[in-house]
Structure formats: structure tokens, C-alpha cells
Amino acid sequence: MASKASSENRESSINEQAIASIYASMRSEINQFYSKITELEMEVSEHSLVIGAIQPLDPSRRCFRMIGGVLVERTINEVLPAVQRNKEGLQEVIARLNEALEKKKKEVAEFEVKHKIKVRKSDSESKDDGGWKAGSAQGVLVGPAS
């Protein structure tokens, strides 16, 4: 009888470990979505800066664009539409990633409810959140155009 209780204990322990492993991988996927979205949003921001910088210039003026590690000389008239298309494409990808992220969040929430998982924040995390202020991010210093 003791061996039966011990084997049940081992099975539930293994089952809990499997659940914890699955939950950790799901949380990891969510973090990957966040990091990819952040990375793409930074690229959209860079595209916006480039568009803002070259749009008011003469369309026949020459400019350089990096394509696959090769610097190519083109005119602003040729480069501007391509940069705008790339920006729009990135925004579409970000929208799809946000949809997938929301779907994954719902999946994780259902998994938490199904397996009665409760997430506790540590004291240091709750203190860090309280001290955060909007607008405290570092900026980029840009010199005058030559």
C-alpha cells in the first residue's frame, strides 16, 4: 500500500513538472512575441525618421540605400516609395504579431485556469513597477544637418 501511494506521488510530481515546463515555454513564447514586436516597432520608427528626413528634399537628389549589405546609389524619387512600402509592410507584420500575441495570452490564461496556476510577483518587481515614471526613457541626440 505504501508503494502505491509513492508511485501516485511520483506521477503527480512528474505531471506537475510537465505542466510547469509547458507553462514556462508558453510564457517564453509570449516574451518572444514582445521582443519581436519591439524590434519591429524600432525599425518602423527608423523608417519614419528616414522618410521625414528625405521627403522635403529634391526628388532628383541622389541618396544611398543599404540593400542586403551593399550600399546602392539611387535618387530620392526611387528610394522614398520603397522605404514607405517597407514601413507599411512592417506595420502589417506588427499587427499580425499583436493578434498572435493576444491569442497566445488567452491560451495561457485558459491554461492557468485549467491547471489552477497562480503567478505571484516578487516584492522587488512590485517595488520596481511603483517607481517607474513615464517619459524617463533615454533619447537620441542628433546634430545639425550639414
UniProtKB/TrEMBL annotation:
Instruction: One Pfam family, please name it.
Output: Prefoldin_2
Q: Name one GO cellular component term.
A: prefoldin complex
- Domain of life assignment: Eukaryota
Protein's GO biological process = protein folding; response to cold
Renumbered residue ranges of the record's region Disordered: 119-146
| Compositionally skewed regions (Basic and acidic residues) per UniProt | 119-131
Protein family according to the UniProt entry = Belongs to the prefoldin subunit beta family.
From the Swiss-Prot or TrEMBL record, give the protein name.
Prefoldin subunit 2
Q: Which organism is it from?
A: Dendrobium nobile
